Amino acid sequence: MHTMWKGSIQFGLVNIPIKLFSATEDKDIKLRQLHKKCHTPIQYEKKCPHCDETISNEEIVKGFEYVKGKFVVLSDEELQELKDEHAEKTVEIKDFVDLTEIDPIYFHRSYFMGPGENGLKAYALLRSALEKSGKIGIAEITIRSKRQLAVVRVYENCLVMETIHYPDEVRSVKHVPSLPEEVDIQEKELNTAMMLIEQLTTTFNPENYHDDYREALQQKIDEKINRNEGKAIEERPRENVVDLMSALQASIERTKKQETSPKATEKKKAKTVRKKA
User: Fold this and answer.
1) d(Cα 151, Cα 107) in Å, to the nearest integer?
2) C-alpha to C-alpha distance for 66 and 187, rounded to whole angstroms
3) Averaged pLDDT, 145-157
4) Calpha distance 72→70 (Å, rounded)
5) What is the Rg, in whole angstroms, of the alpha carbon atoms belonging to the chain?
6) With the CA atoms of 40, 42, 45 and 50 taken in that order, what torsion angle do they form, in degrees rounded to the nearest 10?
7) Going from the N-terminus, what domains does the chain have, and what CATH number goes with each?
8) Per-residue confidence at 261, pLDDT binned at 50, 70, 90?
9) DSSP letter for each residue of the chain
């Protein structure tokens, strides 16, 4: 498993070296866009619509659009300075709370936390303390220049860190249109709904759930491969496209050099003598 971050957990005066590993992976099947005629993958170029020019990465800067059509530009140096300033390698646990106090809407992404060098005993101590207390740690961490709120908890025999949204990142339900207020629900209707919930209530087992669409799509792809429906694109040599004016100018310059060369001068003299004769 690839180590994506190294640092330490800190709470009080305790410091635990750790390594961070991504706990989940995207299993989506990636489909490429192809030219219908020849099945060649479509390329996308970076182009400035104002200058009508194709631009390179070296010509691109980053900016923030503070009002429509107006930007403030941030240089690479300014961004790097901010990154360095906030590049702490510490998961700082600030509080301990009950997991049930945090609504799932706040959860973002999960990471496994493995012990770092000389951190086995301290790692095991925190794991045991969290298990016995039933608490989770509320922490802050910087990952890829982004300051994030997180929780530290126990999953099986491993410490897990889950990044969670800051409160101002969760939108208010007041913005959801047409939410029903007080609705007169008959007791018979409510009892029927409760009975249905009771019948469908079970113990959660993640193995019972599958991405049916992804599995069907993979099966369809495999069938086409087995029927030899795959098509190889024809590799064509890249044409050396030269600007017409540049080519013409280069030809003129070469012709001028040939005319002024000693050999060309002798030929011109000889031709003149023959005409006079």
Assistant:
1) 9
2) 52
3) 89
4) 7
5) 34
6) 130
7) 5-30+69-169 (2.40.290.10), 245-269 (no CATH)
8) low
9) ----EEEEEEETTEEEEEEEEE-----PPP---B-TTT-PBPP---EETTTTEE--GGG--EEEEEETTEEEEE-HHHHHHHHHHT---EEEEEEEEEGGGS-GGGEEEEEEEEE-TT-HHHHHHHHHHHHHHTEEEEEEEEETTEEEEEEEEEETTEEEEEEE--GGGSPPGGGSTT---S----HHHHHHHHHHHHHH-----GGG---HHHHHHHHHHHHHHHTT---PPPP-PPP----HHHHHHHHHHHHHHHHHSHHHHHHHHHHHHHHH-
Distance separating alpha carbons of residues 136 and 95, to the nearest angstrom: 8
Instruction: State the amino acid at position 65 in one-letter form.
Output: E
Which two three-digit tokens encode residue 149? 């709120």
Q: Which amino acid is at 29?
A: I
Q: How confident is the model at residue 114 (pLDDT cuts 50, 70, 90)?
A: very high
**pLDDT tens-place string over residues 6-44:** 888 888 778 888 888 988 888 888 888 888 888 888 888
Residue 107 and residue 169 in contact, taking contact as beta carbons nearer than 8 Å? no
How far is residue 55's CA from residue 39's CA, in Å, rounded to a whole number? Answer: 26
What one-letter code names the amino acid at 14?
V
How confident is the model over 199-220, as a mean pLDDT?
A: 87
Q: Please name the residue that has the structure tokens 């992404």.
A: 109
Q: Given a cut of 90, is residue 5 above it in pLDDT?
A: no
Q: Token pair 């959801």 is at which residue?
A: 176
What values do phi and psi take at 127, rounded to 5? -60, -45
The whole-model pTM stands at 0.65
C-beta separation of 164 from 141 below 8 A: no
| Residue 145 identity | S
Tokens for 104, please give them: 């799932």
Look up residue 107 and give its two tokens: 């959860």
Residue range 139-160: mean pLDDT, rounded: 89
